[in-house]
Structures
1.
Amino acid sequence: MKLIDPMDFSNDPLLSNIQGNILKGHGRDYTTHIFLQFQKGKEKTASAWIGIYLAEKVTSFKKQLWERERFKRNRVPGGIFTGLFLTAAGYAYLGMPEVDTKLDDKAFLDGMKKRLPITCDPDPKDWEQGFRKEAHAMILLADDNVARMELAAREIVELSEGFATVVAVEYGNVIRNENGDGIEHFGYVDGISQPLFLKDEVDEWMKFHNADPKAPKDHPSSPKFDPTADTDLVLVKDPYTDEPDSFGSYFVFRKLEQNVKGFKEAEEDLELGELGGAYLVGRFEDGSPVVLTDDEGLIGAGNYNNFNYGNTPQAVVASASRCPYFAHIRKTNPRDNKIPDGKRVLPVMARRGIPFGQRDKKTAIAPCKEEFPEKGVGLLFMSYQRSIEDQFEVIQHNMANNPDFPNPIPGAPGTGVDAIIGQLKDQHPAKHEYQFPAHYGKPALTARLPFTQFVTMKGGEYFFTPSIPFLRSL
Ligand code: HEM
């Protein structure tokens, strides 16, 4: 397992050449996402603009780490973060040769619109207008200082006038609960479970969970779940530069609208109290994993991640009476370390999503349910991976959209699609029926209870995150 130690100077070239945010989130509270389509006949200008102007703005991972260190020591916040992403059409526009063979992820080459048979997304004619158009590039700006971010966005848009058209702009903003933990709009702490690539992060994780990776397997301090990840999970050699240690990453962007009022009402109709939502998500709102507890308030719940769903088929079945198979976090990560047949990599991604949309009532104060929004808020889902086909699409298609996954007892009836993001072909919103544990931890199940989908995909695209030496070479 190759963990990155930022204190080891031999890692310097790699850290300087890859863009930030891939191996660790940038951590800023506000984001702007500018989707550009370059104009025909302006290839040279667009290319020079990226090479001379944008490449110098893009935040390397080394700079991000340095800013993290400065914040830890002196509480000095980092400056603006800039990232740049290109679609397959963008690479073709810039005249890069043999895109089909050099960046040979089929999903990336097709683009998101052509992958509906796999993702079961709504028809692009129902997407938001901007996303129906072809994008060549996306620029990500992130900052804690909104005014500075807006100024930077304006500068980029003004300087690209004449050779690029802005097809869409999206804004993200972190929302928090009363503990200060980042949540998504249904109210649940998000961003807890991540693959960890840095040595100091893994050490911190083990310390927080009182776990010792060297302890014998059956010892109480042996970790129940290992977040340690090899950089191979997300990094791909950048095929368009000869500079050593230059890597990029495939990137998924999806705008997912959340009907919060609908979700909260449906949750209440289940008549299972707080447990109802916990069964759907796999965690209580404060982050406590429902497989470990039937109540909120676990100390450190907003970070807690040291658990699994059992290591034998019997244990896997037994744990479903505490965390159903259709629970979002169980569907999307069954924690069994299995690479699906015919795939090359574990279906785990580095998730970097941020909520979008404004709430006029503070999320840190429990609002009354009439005030929950039905539209205009949601999640800008983003993820980095080595393969969109084998990671994001396996998770969305083979796992979340698959009512028979996971199924430890061959031939047993399916338990339903992912309760939060499962999608069925031509059914938007998807309507499901689930059997919940009638009593926490006991095998008896409730009758089948209806639950409708409250997440709607409004548009998105597949990108590659090029290395900085490639961008400079343009
Ligand atoms: C975890 C919400 C979309 C994959 C979580 C968690 C929440 C959540 C509350 C638990 C916090 C954590 O462990 O980090 C949502 C909402 C979504 C959404 C509200 C849409 C609006 C997606 C999508 C995918 C996805 C589209 C992938 C196809 C995951 C994964 C985890 C996770 C892999 C971590 C599971 C684990 O390791 O235990 N999500 N999510 N989510 N979500 Fe989502």
Note: The first helix runs from residue 12 to 17.
2.
Amino acid sequence: MHIRSYRSGDLPALYDICLRTGDSGEDATGQFADPKLIGEIFAAPYAAHDPGLISVATDDDGVAGYVIGCLDTLAFEDWCEREWWPPLRKRYPEPADDDTSRDARMIRMIHAPVPTHPRPYLEVPATHPSHLHIDLLPRAQGHGVGRRLIERLLDQLTALGSPGVHLGVSARNHRAIGFYERLGFTRLVEPPTDRPPAGYTLGM
Ligand code: ACO
């Protein structure tokens, strides 16, 4: 696998990989009526906002994975509110209350975005202002590519002066949790004890 900086022509691959890893790391193809929806939230805005913090892993078959970084999470959320969400809110009207489809759940996130740092834990972006996403297709997994991509991003964020990075990971994604712990990420927020956690906020 070759690792290089993102180019605008990689955008369709970002949407595709986001979908194909969109079920807690497993393939979510077929779970969405609109296959671009998940990428509209978790991949494409980053490519529009700060493409310099995206790296991709490629092989002879094309782009097989990416890491996406965001230097300043709160500034990014403000930018999304101004620039990214308004046209999407027009394109995807709010679903009916009884619509439990995955599309409807994603569209609700367009209308009421879920921050990467669980509110009211605003100390997370205070101490770890950057955040990241990483997704590799199965053919790229398990060969050290994830580590290389994360280390490349951490070097970039450090050079830009970031004191810390956080991420949100589904509690069902045991593989990714093990990966992040192996790389040295730790839990920044203890999840509530009165119900099973939906996910964890990790950081470094
Ligand atoms: N438990 C313990 N250690 C692990 C685990 C695990 N489950 N997975 C990997 N490791 C270790 C490896 O042994 C390796 O150790 P070493 O470098 O010290 O020898 C190290 O972690 C790095 O492993 P890589 O081979 O680089 O991991 P990989 O390339 O498979 O990337 C990733 C991991 C990103 C989770 C990848 O499997 C993937 O993309 N999965 C599907 C999508 C996904 O789940 N993305 C995360 C969503 S959460 C978010 O983006 C914020």
Note: The mean pLDDT is 94.
